[in-house]
Amino acid sequence: MPDLDLSGALADTVRLRRRQLGLGQGELADLAGVSERFVYALEHGKTSVQLNKVIAVLSALGLHLELHRGGSATITSVGVTSR
Q1: What is the mean pLDDT of residues 74-79?
Q2: In angstroms, rounded to a whole number, what is the distance separating the alpha carbons of residues 58 and 54?
């Protein structure tokens, strides 16, 4: 199922980038304007998350999500430096 593959890849990418930046889940939540519970759910691959919140988290991490026809996606860094 593509949804599970994307949610797992997104979860892994968000968790890795947050750790690279030296942020706790609560700190990331504050930066993104979402709850810590949302960050936890996103990092654990929950598939029913709100897209606007996902985008806010990715933006806070300096990441960009690009969706492609056919169901593939790319997550790239947009140049945020670590703390």
Answers
A1: 75
A2: 6
